[in-house]
Fold each of these.
Amino acid sequence: MAKIAVFTETQGDNVKSVTLEILGKLAGQTVDVISVGDISEAGLGDLAKYGAGNIHVIKGEGLDQYSPEGYSNALKEFLSSGGYDYVFAGSTSLGKDLFPRLSSMFGAGMASEVTNFVMDGDNFSGTRPLFAGKCLAKVEVTGPKPHFVTVRPNSLGLPESPTAGAGTKNDASSSAGEIRAAIKEIIKGASEKLDLTEANIIVSGGRAMKEEANFKILDEMADVIGATVGASRAAVDSGYAPHAMQVGQTGKTVSPSLYIACGISGAIQHLAGMRTSKVIVAINTDPDAPIFTKADYGIVGDLFQVVPIMTEEFKKLLG
Ligand SMILES: Cc1cc2nc3c(=O)[nH]c(=O)nc-3n(C[C@H](O)[C@H](O)[C@H](O)COP(=O)(O)OP(=O)(O)OC[C@H]3O[C@@H](n4cnc5c(N)ncnc54)[C@H](O)[C@@H]3O)c2cc1C
């Protein structure tokens, strides 16, 4: 059986959901989890619940906060003696930064941003969207090991009945080595909400929002249903929203359970970033807007009337 490790990220006391999704998908395999930095008791409990065997917590000088060089040096040191066949991580901002660097340090292959995969004995086979999601490639990795894999958040889903693992915590030490680019300060964004790429529900606004202040109605709906707010490029270019909120080909790729597009036409470059959403709801005054060809539910109407009504109804439903 392949020897597998999953690199975990945390957010506050919680383990990021994509780590649990990967563990859930690997049920039946013996899987180690690797964390750089400590994990809360709640986080350890979640990892065990979803199947983690050994949980290696790596600590050392220079590893208090993320730096691409420090983390990759520490992980290279740890993984070199681990004999792993596959190392998985979420395709989060950090995963996208860290894993290509790590795979090149090992001279090993990588399957990036897969949306599904199977382990057939020792062999990994993944699915990866290409050309803005218009086709799906089957990817396998050959050559030196370990092979690295990143998985798009929200694409696998959490198993309803996870298979528990031992969840044994092992302290390990490693070193950040020489860090040539030091992070001096991390300035948190204004929003405490989940990053778009990890959000389970997204409410997005387009050019039709008309001005920044009008995003307030999307924020209100988002607060009620636990969503993160996104935007089209037209809204970002018009200065209504920051680029961090942009969904699409030149923005973020998202895969939430529910995507509510408000006043967004459905240009191919926008669809490229959200077409893998499980359920798409579109609100648009134009019944011929292309977004309706992709939407599961469409509301032809003025978003400034429809959104507040939906928010009130959600409030009643959700208390
Ligand atoms: C190389 C390249 C990369 C790009 N990358 C991205 C990207 O990453 N993300 C992205 O989004 N775009 C991207 N674009 C731009 C893309 O082509 C579109 O221009 C953009 O998505 C349009 O944004 P929109 O739907 O908000 O605006 P519009 O296309 O102007 O659509 C506005 C919609 O709002 C509707 N509307 C108007 N008033 C109301 C109302 N009161 N209530 C309800 N509906 C209303 C209209 O009917 C219309 O359908 C890219 C383009 C290029 C060339």
Note: Residues 303-318 form the longest helix (16 residues).
Amino acid sequence: MTEGHVTIIGAGIVGVSCALHLLKDGWRVSLIDEHPAGTQTSYGNAGAISPQSINPMSGSGIIKQIPKWLLDPLGPLAIRWSYLPKAMPWFMQFIRDGAATRVASQSEALAALHRNVIEGHEELAELANVKHLIKRQGWLSLYETDAAFKADAAARARMQSHGHEIHELNPDEISQLEPGLAPIFKHATWAPNSGHTVNPGALTEAYAKQASRMGCEFVNCKVLGFEIGPEGPTKIRTSAGEFKLDRLVIAAGAWSSQLSKQLGEPFPLESERGYHMMLPSPGFTTRRPVSFNERKFMTTTMEEGLRLAGTVEFAGLEAPPNWGRAIKLLEHAKTVFRDVDVSDAKRWMGQRPATPDSLPVISSSKVHEKVFYAFGHGHLGLTGSAVTGAHIASLVSRRNATIDLQPFRIDRYR
Ligand SMILES: Cc1cc2nc3c(=O)[nH]c(=O)nc-3n(C[C@H](O)[C@H](O)[C@H](O)COP(=O)(O)OP(=O)(O)OC[C@H]3O[C@@H](n4cnc5c(N)ncnc54)[C@H](O)[C@@H]3O)c2cc1C
């Protein structure tokens, strides 16, 4: 591997988006992943590509709910007791980042990052010949209680203040938009300009195949570490042997901080584990992603059926899944829809790469001249991936970024 070459670790939606933008810039690119492209977290998400998602998690009233989480392993948000001591420093930072002034600047940064996320995916999907996988059909966000709707007033106002069209709907308007819903919702917000994909796994795979057509080399192995000389990392150690390094991009999702730490740049990253259930024949379709605020899950009609996806669980990267959490999604579906067939549901768990301030890391290394980071997109990694790829290509190619990337820097907690 010589001058003009970039190695990317991680072939999720973030890594393959970086690959496409770097290839477009003329770099030779190798993508290393221990799994086939797009088979980890990027496979099973809810498919929303939502420019209006600009509110950090810490600002959404979640902090008040922490004591409740500890008591219910099947609740919308759960922490395994045994994992709590390990997650505590992250939680402390999460709480600090929930201060009103910080929430305002985090929203500002997310609003800038997410401004053209649908266009970003449309561009890559066109290149990969899968434009049919991207839809612009809006997002419906539902509330069963006045209290939950009221609690989100500030978040709605922030979205509107950044120019996003957000309409408040009454129960009649809700059932006109999605007739399959049970009549249990008191309020909704409707974001007509939101987008989604009808197959996140196929989208990631298509981007990877396009990268391959453009000359990207795929290397199937696990990255174990680096050989670091005075000029930075010179070799990468993997389960398949050693490779020489020129430029390096870490896009390894929830596993990224294990690698950044080895490069001398630790970062507080947690896995917010989420689950999905795929219903092959639910008996109806919805037209757009629908989110259920109190229950912390979403549904999206996809190519292969209705996906019920969401919930948050802190248990680390290694703990086995708690499939009771996925089964709970079926119970929710039976409550929120009038009549849903949940037979033959397929279950899945994924690891959201979560930062305390809900901002991803899109950054040059502050230690090594030729190292770059693209990770930590949390709940919004599909949304932010295509534009992240463009920003990483600007950083590697030493072009001015089109937005201020300071809020996304790797050393913001040091
Ligand atoms: C239930 C659920 C619903 C979601 N819904 C949405 C949504 O609607 N909209 C949205 O925008 N986002 C959503 N997300 C979030 C989104 O899926 C993630 O943010 C995104 O997939 C992260 O992509 P990634 O490429 O960073 O990580 P991944 O897809 O996890 O890819 C990381 C890759 O790195 C590889 N890797 C890691 N370490 C190594 C190593 N040492 N050696 C080799 N390879 C390595 C892994 O094998 C993996 O393939 C959801 C997530 C979940 C769990």
Note: Residues 9-15, 32-35, 40-42, 45-48, 222-223, 251-253, 255, 274, 276, 309-310, 350, 352-353, 375, 377-383 surround flavin-adenine dinucleotide (CB under 6 Å).
